[in-house]
């Protein structure tokens, strides 16, 4: 190994990511962050200390061997880096873009104690993009196990589970209700954050592993989970249907035309390509002034999509302050740069009717922080007499989702009191052979958490079916998930063996 | 028949190719498509719907399942050519062609109650989807009174199917050219006058007609179920575009319905929400008709695109293609 790096010898500044100019990008759907060129990636990779603690691995929901792949980048061995990442994560181009790294790997990075943390996400994306450009794909030799696995939902949880089960030699079929695979990655996350080509490339990789995708299939209604197990002879089923039953505010004028959920706006725009109307048949109402209620990542996406669709003014309405806003800091920052107006401590009271059933504006009230509630957080309370009206012709609710009812209506899976699927620690549901993970278990969360759940469910599924970890990929995976031969990674003192 | 079915048995989760196996034209705007989808034909129940995409650029449109044939493995849809997509389908969907996508059966199946005497009401296009319900009630042992409404005698379809499963059958036409003159509400009134023991009314059709039916039965306090048809995108409860007001509560027609208690439905809200995209719909239609005109395609032709001259005089209903 080269001379040991120290916090003083590494590049002090985080390597900036080239971005499209805010004024220009606010009017196109091209990707905002353009990705690292090779020099930038090499420079940033040098910033990793390769510290022995490796807190980043534990900080990653799928436990990627982060120092390992970064070291490969410094050695200019990009293929090697790709091999390390794909041992645990088949979708680096996606995760590098959409993971909230500041709360995960980058949040615990040792360099981050003194300087800005290593830009792990950007490096991961760099490798993912290189793999797509070069057409790399890692297909290990797979011994067929003879098991048939059904996966409900082709979003991040389903894709991650499918990948692991396919690698374990199972015959995997993924069912998707929409006409295209990808789930929330396709309908939810806009092109400027995650281009559809990237998703399609990652799906193509899964197909090369032998995973079959069947779209236009609404599990529950076309056939039930129980039918999958008996009539369709799947030995195990993973349910990753996502949450998605959008909440409405419950104020006056909720049903006015021009009031819609962020899910509807995003689906129309991203999946159905309403942005290309009338070349594509799905319309969206043209809007000059858009008010988006909520300040999560979905709200940021909705606002930035509205700008790109031609809105002149986009307002963010949020009842708490910027510090409590659940969106990633980077997303808020991007939205601000592009010209979104943020109205913190503001809560909608009602939507105003133009007399013809269309929304013409919104009535809001100012909020202030009141007494701490049971959770210790100070609750926002309305300031009496502070109502005010403003004009807008589109109102978008991005205030979260509830559990989708289809699984509950059509199967005997046990649900919790909020309607989400109840699972044990190993993500097994109340029906033998059926596992569940992602938003349909936890409620709305992040893409990488869903992927983590998909992988965890796959591990449980393998245990349930009695599939033992035999492939090289599994052993490497086990090494970075912490336990190889039952020895914790922290305690091990043997050299890492790389199986050829 | 046997071979198709057995093939479907062995390859139960083989993807359907959504092939159109039958087409019938009831009028110059109403047409029937029978689409092969053995799995869906097995699963479908009365009251459910599908979402169809004609092509990759198309929109997702919800259509109520008008019939299903478990033996043939087909789903029947009856479609009215009113907008761009439905007109384009009228032109493109010939026997042997395929839809880009069809997903379903969606929605909660209609609860076929233990009602002893039921009136099944269909208005215009709603005549088709109410048929499986009438048949299901008949199979469940109910006394079924069918009431269907059309503008005139020429538009009547499926009267034979209804007569086969209804104990009484009333046709209403706007001009009185067949059956009784008047709206379906007249037919309901007639049925109520004759039978004092009607347990349930099921009404499917345009919102204004279902509203009329609900108002007709309200004074008699007869349970009235209606099937709502708001605009949808995904049909799986994910977007909320199809939300309707039921007794003051917000419900999603795609997963909480599509059947609701007609006495609780806010029909005015539904009708306003159906007009959400009027402007864009008109723009898309005009643009498409213009393209048809330039390519010399018969924009409103039934049956076959190579026979642009349909029999009988026909209104050139806002179709510039006719002039060329």
Structural account:
The complex is a heterodimer of chains A (500) and B (324). By secondary structure, chain A is of the alpha/beta class. The longest helix of chain A is centred in the last third of the chain and has 19 residues. The C terminus of chain A is likely disordered. Chain A folds into 3 domains: 113 residues, Fumarate Reductase Iron-sulfur Protein, Chain B, domain 2; 179 residues, FAD/NAD(P)-binding domain (3-Layer(bba) Sandwich), CATH 3.50.50.60; 154 residues, FAD/NAD(P)-binding domain (3-Layer(bba) Sandwich), CATH 3.50.50. Chain A is globular and about 65 Å long. A 5-stranded parallel β-sheet of chain A has the order 3-2-1-4-16. Chain A has a 5-stranded parallel β-sheet with strand order 6-14-7-8-9. In chain A, strands 10, 11, 12 and 13 form a 4-stranded antiparallel β-sheet that branches. Chain B is globular. Chain B is of the alpha/beta class. Chains A and B meet through strand 5 and helix 12 of A and helix 2, strand 7, helix 9 and helix 10 of B.
Describe the SSE topology.
The complex is a heterodimer of chains A (500) and B (324).
Chain A (H helix, E strand, L loop, with lengths): L21 H4 L12 H8 L9 H5 L6 H9 L3 H11 L3 H7 L21 H15 L13 E5 L3 H12 L3 E5 L8 H4 L8 H13 L3 E3 L10 H5 L6 E4 L5 E2 L12 E3 H10 L17 E5 L3 H12 L4 E5 L11 H10 L2 E3 L2 E8 L5 E14 L5 E5 L5 E4 L2 E4 L3 E2 L3 H5 L23 E3 L2 H4 L4 H19 L6 H10 L1 E2 L2 E2 L12
Parallel strand pairs in A: 1-2, 1-4, 2-3, 4-16, 6-14, 7-8, 7-14, 8-9
Antiparallel strand pairs in A: 5-15, 10-11, 11-12, 11-13, 17-18
Helix pairs in contact in A: 2-4, 2-7, 4-5, 5-7, 6-7, 8-17, 12-13, 13-14
Chain B lengths: L1 H9 L9 E6 L4 E7 L1 H6 L5 E5 L7 E4 L2 E3 L4 E7 L3 H9 L8 E6 L10 E7 L3 H13 L3 E8 L8 H7 L2 E6 L6 E2 L2 H11 L5 E5 L2 H11 L5 E5 L15 E4 L2 E4 H4 L2 E3 L5 H8 L3 H18 L29
Parallel strand pairs in B: 8-9, 8-12, 9-10, 10-11, 12-13
Antiparallel strand pairs in B: 1-2, 2-6, 3-4, 3-7, 5-6, 13-16, 14-15
């Amino acid at each position: 190994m080269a001379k040991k790096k120290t916090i003083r010898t590494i590049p002090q500044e985080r390597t900036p990511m080239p971005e499209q100019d805010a004024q220009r990008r606010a009017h196109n759907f091209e990707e905002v962050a353009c990705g690292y060129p090779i020099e930038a990636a090499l420079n940033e990779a040098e910033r990793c200390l390769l510290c022995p603690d490796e807190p980043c691995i534990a900080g990653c929901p799928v436990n990627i061997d982060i120092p390992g792949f970064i070291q490969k980048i410094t050695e200019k061995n990009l293929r090697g880096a790709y091999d390390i990442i794909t041992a645990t994560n088949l979708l680096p181009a996606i995760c590098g873009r959409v993971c909230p790294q500041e709360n995960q790997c980058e949040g615990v990075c040792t360099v981050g104690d003194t300087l800005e943390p290593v830009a792990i996400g950007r490096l991961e994306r760099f490798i993912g993009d290189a793999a797509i450009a070069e057409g790399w794909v890692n297909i290990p030799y797979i011994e067929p196990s003879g098991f048939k696995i059904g996966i409900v939902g082709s979003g991040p949880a389903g894709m991650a589970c499918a990948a692991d089960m396919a690698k374990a030699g199972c015959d995997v079929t993924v069912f998707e209700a929409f006409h295209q695979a990808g789930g929330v990655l396709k309908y939810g996350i806009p092109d400027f954050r995650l281009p559809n080509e990237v998703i399609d490339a990652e799906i193509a990789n899964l197909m090369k592993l032998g995973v079959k995708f069947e779209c236009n299939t609404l599990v529950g209604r076309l056939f039930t989970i129980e039918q999958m197990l008996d009539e369709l002879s799947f030995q195990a089923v993973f349910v990753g249907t996502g949450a998605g039953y959008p909440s409405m505010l419950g104020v006056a004028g909720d049903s006015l035309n021009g009031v819609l959920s962020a899910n509807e706006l995003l689906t129309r725009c991203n999946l159905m390509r309403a942005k290309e109307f009338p070349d594509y048949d799905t319309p969206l109402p043209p809007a000059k002034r858009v008010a988006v209620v909520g300040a999560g990542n979905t709200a940021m996406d909705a606002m930035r999509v509205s700008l790109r669709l031609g809105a002149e003014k986009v307002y963010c309405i949020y009842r708490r302050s910027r510090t409590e806003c659940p969106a990633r800091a980077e997303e808020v920052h991007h939205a601000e740069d592009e010209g979104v107006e943020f109205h913190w401590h503001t809560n909608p009271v009602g939507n105003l009717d133009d007399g013809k059933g269309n929304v013409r504006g919104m009535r809001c009230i100012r909020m202030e922080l009141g007494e701490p509630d049971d959770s210790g957080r100070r609750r926002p309370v309305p300031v009496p007499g502070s109502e005010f009206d403003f004009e807008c012709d589109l109102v978008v609710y991005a205030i979260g989702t509830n559990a989708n009812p289809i699984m509950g209506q059509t199967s005997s899976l046990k649900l919790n009191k909020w309607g989400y699927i109840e699972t044990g620690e190993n993500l097994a549901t109340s029906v033998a052979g059926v596992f569940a993970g992602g938003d349909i278990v936890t409620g709305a969360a992040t893409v990488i958490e869903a992927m983590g759940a998909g992988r965890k469910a796959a591990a449980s599924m393998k245990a349930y079916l009695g599939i033992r970890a035999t492939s090289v990929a599994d052993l490497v995976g086990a090494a970075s998930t912490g336990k190889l031969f039952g020895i914790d990674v922290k305690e091990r003192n043997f050299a890492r063996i790389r199986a050829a | 028949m046997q071979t198709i079915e057995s093939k479907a048995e062995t390859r139960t989760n083989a993807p359907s190719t959504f092939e159109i196996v039958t087409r019938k034209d009831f009028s110059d705007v109403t047409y029937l498509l029978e689409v092969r989808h053995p799995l869906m034909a097995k699963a479908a129940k009365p009251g459910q719907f599908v979402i169809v995409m004609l092509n990759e650029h198309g929109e997702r449109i919800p259509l109520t399942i008008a019939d299903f044939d478990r033996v043939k493995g087909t789903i029947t849809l009856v479609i009215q050519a009113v907008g761009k997509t439905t007109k384009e389908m009228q032109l493109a969907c010939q026997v042997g062609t395929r839809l880009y996508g069809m997903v379903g059966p969606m929605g909660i199946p209609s609860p076929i109650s233990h009602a002893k005497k039921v009136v099944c009401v269909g208005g215009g296009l709603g005549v088709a989807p109410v048929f499986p319900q009438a048949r299901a009630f008949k199979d469940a042992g109910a006394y079924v009174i069918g009431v269907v409404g059309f503008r005139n005698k020429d538009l009547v379809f499926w009267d034979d199917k209804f007569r086969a499963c209804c104990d009484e059958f009333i046709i209403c036409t706007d001009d009185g050219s067949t059956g009784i003159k008047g709206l379906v509400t007249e037919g309901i009134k007639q049925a109520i006058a004759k039978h004092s023991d009607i347990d349930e009314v099921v009404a499917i059709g345009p919102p204004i007609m279902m509203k009329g039916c609900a108002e007709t039965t309200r004074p008699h306090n007869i349970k009235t179920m209606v099937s709502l048809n708001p605009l949808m995108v995904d049909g799986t409860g994910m977007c909320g575009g199809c939300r309707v007001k039921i007794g003051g509560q917000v419900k999603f027609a795609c997963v909480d319905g599509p059947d609701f208690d007609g006495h609780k439905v806010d029909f005015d809200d539904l009708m306003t929400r159906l007009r959400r995209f009027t402007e864009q719909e008109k723009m898309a239609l005009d643009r498409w008709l213009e393209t048809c005109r330039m390519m010399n395609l018969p924009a409103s032709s039934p049956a076959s695109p190579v026979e642009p001259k349909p029999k009988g005089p026909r209104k050139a209903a806002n179709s510039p293609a006719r002039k060329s």
